[in-house]
Specification:
This protein is an all-alpha fold. The chain has one domain. 74% of the residues lie in helices and 0% in strands. Helix 2 crosses helix 7 and helix 8 packs parallel to helix 12.
């Protein structure tokens, strides 16, 4: 708990880092923050063309749900994936800060997660507007259920980023392994196609925490339904497990980190 009290104490520092990330990323850019929307829009267009053969026969309006579903899936996936991939090298990137300032190590993965969370919130806002316009029935009141889901996803992402950051310090190949694993996991997660299309591999979706977070964020926003209690329980347990592992990792390795940089 002392670690997290210290992180909160330095909130002005890591908030300024996140703000700097946003300003630096879009400096001298014509579209600015619009680039965070262009990628999922472009990829959704590509997947729409590739997977249109999956459209139910005779259903000419299937795109009204397919496009928002794919956009939401890509937004959530990019948040979780980028938090992990970028989190791997966060201590290496922040080595000058670590050597000069005795700050809590949890701050550096938090910077990565909050920067990616900003893009996720922008994407979800766009998806909510799109849902209100094109999805039959529009935006439902159940969409507010994504608020606790976003919090759970952010804590889960921070926990994974923290563990992977420490692991990378000891094993440099971790970052490459995570990138490779993310490529395979993308196609085993029902982001651009329905879960039933996994056929014999559907059980992988049931065991995949990324898929669980995808469901509790996507279903209330687009389908207007509340995911099952079992799905929420799975996400809570995954978050608590990852959070506990991150906390234990910090306590065990924080004093050794400086000697591994």
């Amino acid at each position: 708990m002392q670690q997290f009290t210290a992180i909160w104490k330095y909130r002005h520092f890591w908030l300024s880092l996140v703000r700097m990330d946003m300003l630096t990323r879009y400096r001298r850019s014509v579209l600015g923050v619009g680039w965070s929307l262009l990628y999922p829009l472009a990829m959704t267009g590509i997947f729409f063309l590739v997977f249109r053969s999956l459209a139910p026969a005779g259903d000419e309006n299937w795109w009204r749900t397919y496009i928002p579903n794919t956009l939401a899936g890509l937004a959530v996936w990019e948040f979780l994936k980028n938090s992990c991939v970028q989190g791997c090298k966060t201590f290496l990137v922040h080595e000058p800060y670590i050597r000069q300032c005795p700050l809590p190590y949890g701050i550096y993965p938090l910077r990565v997660v909050l920067s990616n969370l900003t893009h996720l919130l922008i994407g979800l806002g766009m998806i909510a507007a799109l849902t209100a316009v094109v999805v039959p029935g529009g935006l439902h009141a159940s969409a507010t259920a994504i608020v606790p889901a976003i919090f759970l996803a952010a804590v889960f992402a921070w926990s994974l980023a923290t563990v992977l950051a420490f692991a990378t310090i000891y094993f440099n190949d971790v970052a490459h392994i995570v990138e490779l694993a993310a490529q395979g996991l993308f196609f085993l997660t029902p982001i651009v196609y329905p879960r039933h299309n996994l056929q014999g591999f559907a059980w992988l979706a049931d065991c995949n925490p990324f898929c669980a977070f995808l469901e509790i964020l996507r279903e209330p926003l687009i389908a207007g339904t509340i995911p099952s209690a079992e799905r929420y329980a799975f996400c809570v347990l995954a978050t608590l497990g990852a959070f506990g592992l991150a906390n234990a990792t910090i306590l065990r390795y924080e004093k050794r980190l400086i000697f591994r940089l």
